[in-house]
Structure formats: C-alpha cells, structure tokens
Design goal:
Residues 9-163 form the Nitroreductase domain. It holds the Pfam family Nitroreductase. By secondary structure, the chain is α+β, with helices and mostly antiparallel strands. The chain is built from eleven helices and four strands, in the order H-H-E-H-H-E-H-H-E-H-E-H-H-H-H. It folds into two domains: 3-168 and 228-239, 3-Layer(aba) Sandwich (NADH Oxidase), CATH 3.40.109.10; 176-214, no CATH class. The longest helix has 24 residues, at 102-125.
C-alpha cells in the first residue's frame, strides 16, 4: 500500500550482523525517532542504556542465555522502565511519591516498549536489522547491578542493532480475524483458522531449518504457558521499588 506499511510487514529478527559500525549521527537520529513515540500522561518513563564496552557486552550476553549477537551487533541498547526521574520531580516540588503503584509500573513499561518499537522502525527504515533480547530478564539483578540501575528503574529488554548479515524469511503471524474482534471478544470461530495457521508455521520451520523441529504455534505457546516463567521477576521488581499497590 505504501513504503511504510511494506516496511512494517517485512520485519524479521536478525541474529547475525556485519562487522560494520553505524555512521556518525545515525544512532541519535534513530533514538530521536524512538523518543517521539506516544507516552502516557507525558511521563516519558523510558531510559535507554547504550552498552559499548566489550566486557560489559560479554556479561550481558551471558546473563541473557549466551546469545552471541549481544556481543557482535554494532549497537546494544537496554530499554528500561523508569519512574525514578519522575520521583526526583516529586522531591523538587515537595510532593509525596506514589510511583510504586501498579498503574505507574504499567505506564513506564509501556513507554519503554513504545519507544523501542519506534526505534526499531526507524532502524529498519535506515537499512539496519534488530533483535529484541528479553533474555536479560533471566538475570535482572545481575543486569541491574552491571548497569547500576537505581530504585525505580528496571531493564525491560535489550535491543541489538546493526547491518544484517543474513536474510531470513518473514515469520507468518496469526490471521487478522483471530486477533481483531468486532465489538466483543468472541473466539468461537478461531479453532479452524489456528489449525490452518499451525500448518503454515510447521512449513515455515521446515523451510527455515531444513527439516525443523516440527512444532507448530499452538504447541509452542501451550508449552510456554504450562511452565513457570521467570518466577524471580516479582521479587526483583519489588526490590527495585515497584510495589504493585
């Protein structure tokens, strides 16, 4: 329909990058575009840590489950949800700080995600590839200690940026009719479409991996939600000042 829509629909995760630095000024332009994302109540509750030191990258790669592209990408950014900055404003104006409510946690987390996605679109428009690194939440305390994150700040995810050295296929998404509902939530007609989608995903993995693991989407997510997922996060967030009141 237009170049922007085509770009958005062509998104892939890139896990192999060329040994090529970004030109001067490009990262600032990309992050400026990211910062232009919507922000609830004008909180601007995202902080980005740019990590360049090889030794720090190596530690983050290990914390994230030994993902080598964390070390090899031209740039690695950690997007953090941040209510500390607003808390400092409370001190400035002698107001009580109530930033440990669940709503404030949601606002800051969404702000970080929206800024990151704007950053990703700008990066891909500039010919770069990206890979989100949610694996940082495997070891959030170690990540926070390394980055010296204070109370009121937590690492939501990392982001690899660089020039792609691979050209993977676009991974098919669920049919829009499964995702978008009219007026009310009604999934009574979804089963057949999900079955057909599962067949597409099996074929995608078969073509991508030369045989693939043969696991379809519904089995993947069934496994995901049947297992404990980072049970340490609640305690860690409380330690970081997110009380979830």
């Amino acid at each position: 329909m237009n170049d922007t829509i085509d770009l958005l629909k062509s998104h892939r995760s890139i896990r192999k990058f060329k040994d090529q630095a970004l030109p001067d000024g490009l990262l600032a332009e990309i992050l400026g575009a990211g910062q232009s994302a919507a922000t609830s109540s004008f909180l601007q509750g995202a902080t980005v840590i740019r990590v360049s030191k090889p030794e720090s990258r190596a530690q983050l790669a290990a914390f994230a489950g030994n993902q080598p592209y964390v070390e090899k990408a031209a740039e690695f950014l950690v997007f953090c949800a941040d209510v500390r900055r607003a808390g400092n404003c409370c001190v400035k104006y002698e107001k009580a700080f109530a930033g440990d409510y669940t709503e404030h946690f949601i606002i800051a987390t969404v702000d970080a995600a929206l800024m990151a996605q704007n950053t990703v679109v700008a990066a891909e428009a500039a010919g770069l590839g990206i890979c989100y690194i949610g694996g940082l939440r495997n070891n959030p305390r170690q990540v926070s200690d390394l980055l010296q994150l204070p109370t009121g700040v937590y690492p939501v995810f990392g982001l690899c940026l660089g020039y792609p050295d691979q050209d993977p296929e676009v991974k098919p998404r669920l049919p829009l009719s499964v995702i978008v509902k009219e007026e009310v939530y009604d999934d009574s007609q979804d089963a057949a479409e999900i079955d057909a989608y599962d067949d597409r995903i099996r074929e995608y993995y078969r073509m991508r991996t030369g045989g693939g693991h043969g696991v379809c989407w519904s089995e993947q997510v069934a496994t995901l939600l049947s297992e404990k997922s980072r049970p340490h996060m609640r305690g860690f967030l409380a330690e970081q000042g997110f009380g979830m009141k």
